[in-house]
């Protein structure tokens, strides 16, 4: 009964808020909205090509982690960025997983079917993402400099630890204590519960590993090369980040640390690529946005926009209706939402009657900074994170002037092509 009353009050609040909603997209602002008919349309590729000279980092969001059109549009954008000379893609995935994918796209090592099917992240177990990695591999077969793939996450260790074990066994005789810590059975995902002993084991692993890598630096570089040594050092730092995360008792501190560590890991990737490197980031809208919408703390996009200014370019995705995948109380499932009917930016974008739209917010903001569109938060379809339920609010408020440089609208989304998980 109490839950029902709370939902009724929330609906009443939203209705009252929307009753005063005015038309946001005036004639002038509509000049910066570009309909396009397909993912291969020149409207999209021309816009991406035009922004590349001034952007060191392009953040590619997604309105949900499991939406076919988001994946395919980002695939096309990344192909354009590769043609423009970009150096790498940094993914919202654990560092060690991306090490395996990068070995495939740069050296051809590994089986692409297994690399996707055995991924611990449901986000990437799709044919759409597999197609992207295959395209990157084909590009690298003839490229002077390979386009690389990195991971920025520190929330999983199940790929990092075996990589380290193999690396040390091939290139140096690690101590028994270090090997024991590497192969010990323990939780390997930060979102799991860790006992005090397990937390201390990760701290001990970090101290043993960092000390060993420092002491045997020359030996390891001479045997395995500087690139592998740099990877081992980064996994040591990832271990420290993981231990720091699981040492916290408060969830909000954990999630804020996650974005802070992701920001540092992105910077490390750029340092490995060298001066004047340019990268794209693949992550949820909630991470690439320049001012947090879903979360009450500073996120990856906030740090990057502060550090890089206009050289950070954030692209968000939104949708009107259709399918996506997310966890429910009964496990992972396909969801489908009807079109938005309440007055909102989403409904106004739907009135263009186009399957896709590109909204150039940065150019509009520079041309007309005093538009009502930028004076307050506006209602838009709510982003979907890893989980969803029928009580989720269908609308959220967003401050466009501090959120995205560009917004890509999808009128109708579909469920991606699932690749079954092989544990």
Keywords:
disordered N terminus; nine-stranded mixed beta sheet; 423 residues; single chain; alpha/beta; 47% helix
Description:
With 423 residues, the protein is of the alpha/beta class. The protein is 47% helix and 16% strand. The chain is built from 17 helices and 11 strands. The protein has helices spanning 2-19, 27-30, 42-51, 68-83, 95-107, 112-117, 127-140, 160-171, 176-183, 196-215, 217-224, 226-246, 251-273, 285-288, 300-308, 345-350, 361-367, and strands at 33-36, 57-60, 88-94, 148-153, 279-282, 312-328, 331-337, 356-359, 378-381, 395-398, 406-413. The strands form 2 sheets. Strands 1, 2, 3, 4, 5, 6, 7, 8 and 11 form a 9-stranded mixed sheet that branches. Strand 6 (312-328) and strand 7 form a beta hairpin. Helix 9 (176-183) crosses helix 10. The longest helix is centred in the middle third of the chain and has 23 residues, at 251-273. It is globular. The model is unreliable at 1-10 and 12-20 (pLDDT under 50).
Gross morphology is globular
- What value does the average pLDDT take? 92
**Beta-strand share of residues:** 15-25%
Question: Would you list the SSEs in sequence order as H and E?
Answer: HHEHEHEHHHEHHHHHHEHHEEHEHEEE
Uncertain stretches of 5 or more adjacent residues? 1-10, 12-20
Blueprint (SSEs and pairs):
Elements: H1 2-19, H2 27-30, E1 33-36, H3 42-51, E2 57-60, H4 68-83, E3 88-94, H5 95-107, H6 112-117, H7 127-140, E4 148-153, H8 160-171, H9 176-183, H10 196-215, H11 217-224, H12 226-246, H13 251-273, E5 279-282, H14 285-288, H15 300-308, E6 312-328, E7 331-337, H16 345-350, E8 356-359, H17 361-367, E9 378-381, E10 395-398, E11 406-413
Parallel strand pairs: 2-5, 2-6, 3-4, 3-5, 6-11
Antiparallel strand pairs: 1-8, 6-7, 8-11, 9-10
Helix pairs in contact: 3-4, 4-7, 5-7, 8-11, 9-10, 10-12, 11-12, 12-13, 13-15
